[in-house]
């Protein structure tokens, strides 16, 4: 153990208890979180709130305490115009992959707020951070990407609590964004987020409300002591 | 749009505001969350609490509203002995990848609670759910895995609020668990979690407290309008 740790005893502390009302706050935030694509207010996010949101992301778990994430705050109009163009190119390809009614419904959906939100956040994963051998990543090499996603979900919940909507844009060719943002090869783009205050939200996920896909019953995704025997499965 | 949606107007609602005290509850839960490897209490998790925890996971965002996750609740002692053996095999390989002081420190760490926690939860991602073409996954094919990780992070925070510790075990060969749990090829194992009530927790991540790796400064992972120019970077 490094000498500088010798003064710090590693002893567990009594775990804080959260009462029923506190638990309910968490559940309310989790259930009120939405993927926001429109109706972003144009006013900038309060810097103190933004810092709290990013601190929540930075408090996520990470494999081997790697903390592999970076948060690129994108406000520059030219950069965002470039990202928007990359979305439009990919989305034109995407809509051709759907047929009939699904294609019409797909076309009717607004899938990003890159230019209308006051802030975009590109969340990346530096795959080299912490060296070649990372504790906990020795046999499952994507664990650092998963750690970064944990940071995204913390960010998303914190944003919701602060009145800030988040929309995760995934329809682009990663190399297009890599070029625009100067992201090196050893760093992977995990999430491209649009962020801004919102006054209104949908009560349900928009894709559920618009009939794209139904909510699965919770019971259908819970199984005991292994994968379920073949039979009816969630669609 | 399917006819059964015609009676349901898709209109946004006023977004609930969370006050400063409510936001602080979320931040307290986020900051008190730990990766737990030991000191699990043996008593079973209250079924109502477990259901709330899994419901929080199921409320996670998912690409194309795919909800690709399943939760395998593992209590069977033989299955868990098999998973533990798979961990031991992989961990013996892992410790050989570290050298000198790091190897000694690695060996001193307890990295799982597979047998001592009352419940294991294997969280999987069904890559075929929702069909071949999934909205939002057309250009970034790992989005369904990332959705599943969002569910894991929701689960972890909900567990913390319920007094339940979670430890994410990632040191195993996935095919070993696939065989033990009967998980088919089209389903990917995203997380293997140990779960149980905890009375005490470390104030900091254990790897930080034990000197494995330092906490990065938040400022060092925030950048503006693109990847930073070459220079000192987080280690």
Key structural traits:
homodimer, 235 residues, alpha+beta, NADH Oxidase, four-stranded antiparallel sheet, disordered N terminus
SSE layout and pairing:
The structure is a homodimer of 235-residue chains.
Chain A: E1 13-14, H1 20-32, H2 47-58, E2 69-74, H3 77-95, H4 100-108, E3 119-126, H5 143-161, E4 164-169, H6 174-181, E5 187-197, E6 200-201, H7 206-209, E7 222-224
Helix pairs in contact in A: 2-5, 3-6
Assembly annotation:
homodimer
Strand portion of chain A, in percent? Answer: 15-25%
User: Strand order, biggest sheet of chain A?
Assistant: 2-3-5-4
| Secondary-structure-derived class of chain A | alpha+beta
Domain Nitroreductase (chains A, B): 30-197
Enzyme class (chains A, B): oxidoreductase
InterPro entries (chains A, B): BluB, Nitroreductase, Nitroreductase-like, Nitroreductase/BluB
GO molecular function (chains A, B): 5,6-dimethylbenzimidazole synthase activity
Kindly summarize this structure in a few lines.
Chains A, B: This is 5,6-dimethylbenzimidazole synthase. The first copy, chain A, is built from seven helices and seven strands, in the order βααβααβαβαββαβ.
């Amino acid at each position: 153990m490094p000498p500088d740790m010798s003064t710090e005893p590693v002893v567990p502390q009594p775990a804080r208890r959260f009462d029923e009302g506190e638990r309910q706050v968490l559940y309310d935030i989790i259930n009120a979180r939405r993927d926001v694509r429109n109706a972003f207010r144009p006013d900038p996010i309060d810097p103190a709130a933004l810092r709290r949101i990013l601190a929540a992301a930075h408090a996520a778990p990470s494999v081997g305490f790697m903390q592999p994430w970076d948060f690129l705050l994108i406000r520059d109009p030219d950069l965002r115009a470039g990202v928007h163009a990359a979305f439009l190119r990919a989305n034109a390809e995407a809509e051709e992959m759907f047929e009939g009614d699904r294609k019409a419904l797909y076309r009717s959906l607004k899938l990003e707020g890159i230019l209308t939100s006051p802030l975009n956040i590109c969340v990346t994963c530096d795959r080299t951070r912490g060296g070649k051998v990372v504790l906990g990543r020795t046999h499952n090499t994507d664990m650092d990407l998963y750690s970064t996603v944990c940071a995204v979900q913390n960010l998303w919940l914190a944003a919701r609590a602060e009145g800030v909507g988040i929309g995760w844009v995934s329809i682009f060719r990663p190399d297009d964004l890599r070029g625009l943002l100067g992201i090196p090869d050893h760093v992977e783009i995990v999430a491209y987020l649009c962020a801004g205050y919102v006054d209104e939200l949908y009560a349900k996920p928009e894709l559920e409300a618009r009939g794209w896909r139904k909510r699965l019953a919770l019971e259908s995704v819970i199984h005991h002591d292994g994968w379920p025997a073949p039979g009816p499965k969630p669609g």
